[in-house]
Amino acid sequence: MGFSSSPETEKFLCDRLLDNAQPISERFRALFSLRNLRGSAPRQALLLATRDPSNLLAHEAAFALGQMQDAEAVPALERLLFDLTLHPIVRHEAAEALGAIGLEGNVCILEKSLATDPAQEVRETCELALRRIEEQKNVKHNEDEMLHLSVSAFLSVDPARPTSDCSSVQELREVLLNEEKCMYERYAALFALRNHGGEGSVSAIVDSLSAGSALLRHEVAYVLGQLQNKAASDALSEVLRNVNEHPMVRHEAAEALGSIADKESVALLEEFVKDPESIVSQSCEVALSMLEFERSGKSFEYLFMQTPQVQ
Ligand SMILES: [Fe+2]
Ligand SMILES: [Fe+2]
Fold it and tell me: Chain-centre distance of CA 161, in angstroms?
């Protein structure tokens, strides 16, 4: 699915995305609009944004390229993954994007990074992406399953396929919290619990915020944002407050609190908009701006300028 847009709109969005004199929230508005477009100009702009001094914008651009599943972005994502001068959060998204695009040729790229990247969160992402590509190969003949693997009910291309429906919440909880299980198994349990919903699932997901892996914790915070369940706000607040937590995890907690948006969450975002870690402060800034748009009944994205078009 994509949106049609005029060349003028496209140019406006690309310029805005790359204009570092603009507030970060304005640049995110452009990014969120560009990810619905296809073609070389939006792709080029997003690729340039993956090199932005704002690690938050850079990682979001890489994430968007993965969600767009655009094979033409692969060579640039490969260069991104192997550029060790970049923040691990950016390399992590490059690896995840290569998994989401899912081409067979991405396997050797991911294997090389798995063997060489100094950051654990990047290596774990490679491990997941490799398994995702493997799984995709196995279900290729079954179109229903294929669709299931590609886009979730939450409209995200998930890094793992949810565990099959026959597992109980208790079984899924055990896998998610089991430090001995491999990352893919735990991710699969996490997405199955998310799709299942309900109190037991949410409390299992919240409990896994204490997992040993920062990568898993960040995905858990992301999923709690998708669920928008107030029962998670205390735990997410604790994550955002914890200055010793990985910025990737605090970032997802800030975004999740923005989508829960109760009074306490908003107050906390206002407090941490001054955090010394820019990934965190900018996450709060973007989340607050999105809420502001929502409150005034306006669209955060610029897509009101275009008409949806099914492709
Ligand atoms: Fe991520
Ligand atoms: Fe993120």
Answer: 15
Rounded distance from Cα 57 to ligand 2 centre (Å)? 9
How much distance in Å is there from the Cα of 303 to the middle of ligand 1?
A: 25
Residue 302 pLDDT level (bands cut at 50, 70, 90): confident
> Which residues 6+ apart lie within 8 Å of 221 measured at CB?
209, 236, 239, 249, 252, 253, 255, 256
Ligand nearest to the CA of 57: 2
Phi, psi (5° rounding) for residue 211? -60, 155
pLDDT, average across residues 213-230: 97
What is the CA(147)–ligand 1 centre distance, in A? 21
Instruction: Give the angle 176-179-181 at the CA atoms, nearest 5°.
Output: 70
Across 139-153, 158-172, 240-254, the highest mean pLDDT is recorded for 240-254
CA nearest neighbour of 186 among 206, 205, 166, 200: 205
Q: What is the mean pLDDT of residues 149-157?
A: 70
b/e code 290-302 from CB counts within 10 Å (16+ = b):
bbeeeeeeeebbb
The alpha carbon of 299 and the centre of ligand 1 are apart by a number of angstroms equal to 25
Query: pLDDT value at position 6?
Result: 85
> Is 251 annotated as contributing to ligand binding?
yes
Q: Is 246 annotated as a binding residue?
A: no
Helix (H) or strand (E) holding 80: helix 74-81
In the reported structure, the alpha carbon of residue 235 is separated from the centroid of ligand 2 by a whole-number distance in angstroms of: 18
Residue 156: the pLDDT is: 78
For residue 247, give the ligand nearest its CA.
2
Domain definitions of the chain by residue range: 1-148
